[in-house]
Amino acid sequence: MSFRLKGNLINPITWNALFWIIIVFTAINSISKSFNQEREGRQLYYYLIANPQAIILSKIIYNSGLMLLLSLIGYWVYGLIMNNPVENHWLFLINLCLASTGFASTLTLISAIASKANNSGALMAVLSFPVMLPMLLIVIKISKNAMDGLSTSTSMDEILTLVAINMIVVTVSYLLFPYLWRS
Amino acid sequence: MKKAWWKILTAALLLYTVIGGLIFDVPRLNILNETIRALHFHVPMWFGMIIMLLTSVIYSIKYLKSGDYNHDIKSVEFANTGIVFGLLGIVTGMVWAQFTWGEWWSGDPKQNAAAIGMLIYMAFMVLRGSLEDEQQRARISAVYNIFAFPSLVVLLFILPRLTDSLHPGNGGNPGFNAYDLDSNLRLVFYPAVIGWALLGLWLTTLKIRYRKLQEKLFIDS
Predict the structure, then answer these.
(1) pLDDT tens, A67-81?
(2) ipTM value
(3) Fewer beta carbons within 10 angstroms: which end of chain A, N or C?
(4) B32 — contact with chain A (CB < 8 Å)?
(5) CA distance A143 to A19
(6) 3-state SS class at A48
(7) What are the extents of the domains in chain B?
């Protein structure tokens, strides 16, 4: 597949869209495990030894680290195989880091919600998609700017919005998680 | 009759909106022409939706604090009415867009954002449908309701302002107050907003009473 694509058959807009689709699927698949995978007994053990705020914060930190690692590896491999049309690398990397921490923290609470239901795999996708979309739209816009080589200052508004959304998501998760954890 | 005054007010305001909105003089503008009357029917839907959904979130917070099952019923019914208002807002917007932008759905950021916003609340209903236990359903859906509301706000009020949109009031386009130089539109617009919002409240109270009666019958039988 790669030698066909090397002949510039893929245009930058498609490159951008495909990359973020890959990142979103990576995020949903890797983070949906964070509450499902653990057995009842272990959840009870956590419930006994730690307070809920500590648990949600540590889950968010772990998932953010995981997502950062995965998305950086993804970016590297994707750029290696599909060419790398990005011109402003720093902006793209800042954007990638903000996006992966944002996705990770949103999906952590969603996975906690979905793990309470029976068909949590399908529910995870249904619940997370509309909540992640606003973030995804901003991220795609910034990465388009980075690919066109615009300077970082032109995307400052979007970056600040993204940071604000991340902070809101973490705060709201921190406040709401204790109510989920009780059941 | 004592408590009925606001229902009479609702009916009066809506009657005034329909009559005044259709026959009062409006500014003559290119392209917009008579479609500017959509202001009295399309925009109040979004006001109504935001008011209903905000009330739903407030009841969700109250539920989490108190654990009172009545708050859960209220929160769901307000969200339901919010969805109805949102769908009506999309439909009235599409009719307006057909005559001014030339297409029912042109993929404008504002249209897409509204559609995604509806998806959030559809997902809320799916979540409620997939949980069996009543207590758990109430608590978990309350958490999702509160969690999803900020992203609705971002979708409807922040994103369209960052991008290019044809919608009035976004992406550098003037809102209606730029056209309404003699304040004629306001005479109908403000009563319309209040009237439609009160209608939403009325519908919701009926639904809440219906749900409570259902619960009572269920317990008695």
Answers:
(1) 999 999 999 999 888
(2) 0.84
(3) N
(4) no
(5) 10
(6) helix
(7) 40-220
